[in-house]
Amino acid sequence: MISSVKPTPSSLSATSTGGRRSIPTKLQFSPLHITRSCHNQSFINSNVSHQKPLHISSAENLSSFKREVRVEAYEADRSRPLDINIELPDEQSAQKLKIGIYFATWWALNVVFNIYNKKVLNAFPYPWLTSTLSLACGSLMMLVSWATRIAEAPKTDLDFWKTLFPVAVAHTIGHVAATVSMSKVAVSFTHIIKSGEPAFSVLVSRFFLGETFPLPVYLSLLPIIGGCALAAVTELNFNMIGFMGAMISNLAFVFRNIFSKKGMKGKSVSGMNYYACLSMMSLLILTPFAIAVEGPKMWAAGWENAVSQIGPNFVWWVVAQSVFYHLYNQVSYMSLDQISPLTFSIGNTMKRISVIVASIIIFHTPVQPVNALGAAIAILGTFLYSQVNIQSLVV
């Protein structure tokens, strides 16, 4: 790189007596001179010998024109290369790895929950009480964690709980609707219908939030909707209550995710504690409705019947489905704390592939070829949707 130096009168003196010139070994100059010289791309005859390389001993804050740079002339064998090692951590890769671990844990816990939840509902067909027990178990777990200081209790105020209320309403509706659906139809069918959640997410974001998406995003919804419709039409054990429960759950959870992301902005409450508070408020909302719809008498008779048929294992099934329900939701909210609601819906949909496959294998669910084709089309549509959505965000 070529640079020119314009010496100041105080720092450079040259005489022509006897053809001799005296050149100082240290020069002081303003960075403004360097900037102008580089801009003009021209040499200024400064009467400085260029037989010796210039070595910059210190250069700090070149953006400030009030600093001076000291330049010293060294012999070639004394000059040392400038060795600068700047280590920049790859924060994006670390963030992706963190989210990937969240997603893998979330999906594994969800598979276990769905298996035990279906076992409980097959023996004890009371989805309102089952949903209530899930929320109660999670609330109890977090209260114990806060009391024993395993987890730090959140610092909340009245505004926090006001903001949380619509989230809790949407969460309660989505949770009960999904449980009702699984009590009426196969787990695989419920999750095939719930794989249409991206369509609900886009429609809600478009008409309620005013967001717009590229044309490929809208086109990718067609196979999702078409695949879900084909799977529903060809379902051997189709039930309208089960179908509508899955559809209502889709809509409710989309609103929950959107409200949750807005409610978590600017708050000091972590994703784990946020879901804990959400569970407690949802429990307060759901309990009176569960008592009104089903009631203690029905629960007592159903519980006695289930224990007589299954044995003591039924109690462990209830405990397992309640614990794993809280754990998988807690991890999902830890993921939501790091990503957007739309990305959350994508991960939630891709999770259903493992749930569908696992439930078909464990419960030996009969699947017709056309029904399987519909599920495959819906899943393929979800994959295309995630791809075009990511590309649109990159562009």
TrEMBL record:
<keyword id="KW-0934">Plastid</keyword>
<feature type="region of interest" description="Disordered">
    <location>
        <begin position="1"/>
        <end position="24"/>
    </location>
</feature>
<feature type="transmembrane region" description="Helical">
    <location>
        <begin position="271"/>
        <end position="290"/>
    </location>
</feature>
<keyword id="KW-0813">Transport</keyword>
<protein>
    <recommendedName>
        <fullName>Sugar phosphate transporter domain-containing protein</fullName>
    </recommendedName>
</protein>
<feature type="transmembrane region" description="Helical">
    <location>
        <begin position="215"/>
        <end position="234"/>
    </location>
</feature>
<keyword id="KW-1133">Transmembrane helix</keyword>
<feature type="transmembrane region" description="Helical">
    <location>
        <begin position="310"/>
        <end position="328"/>
    </location>
</feature>
<feature type="domain" description="Sugar phosphate transporter">
    <location>
        <begin position="97"/>
        <end position="386"/>
    </location>
</feature>
<keyword id="KW-0150">Chloroplast</keyword>
<dbReference type="InterPro" id="IPR037185">
    <property type="entry name" value="EmrE-like"/>
</dbReference>
<dbReference type="InterPro" id="IPR050186">
    <property type="entry name" value="TPT_transporter"/>
</dbReference>
<keyword id="KW-0812">Transmembrane</keyword>
<dbReference type="InterPro" id="IPR004696">
    <property type="entry name" value="Tpt_PEP_transl"/>
</dbReference>
<keyword id="KW-0809">Transit peptide</keyword>
<dbReference type="Pfam" id="PF03151">
    <property type="entry name" value="TPT"/>
</dbReference>
<feature type="transmembrane region" description="Helical">
    <location>
        <begin position="99"/>
        <end position="116"/>
    </location>
</feature>
<feature type="compositionally biased region" description="Polar residues">
    <location>
        <begin position="1"/>
        <end position="19"/>
    </location>
</feature>
<keyword id="KW-0472">Membrane</keyword>
<dbReference type="InterPro" id="IPR004853">
    <property type="entry name" value="Sugar_P_trans_dom"/>
</dbReference>
<feature type="transmembrane region" description="Helical">
    <location>
        <begin position="128"/>
        <end position="147"/>
    </location>
</feature>
<feature type="transmembrane region" description="Helical">
    <location>
        <begin position="240"/>
        <end position="259"/>
    </location>
</feature>
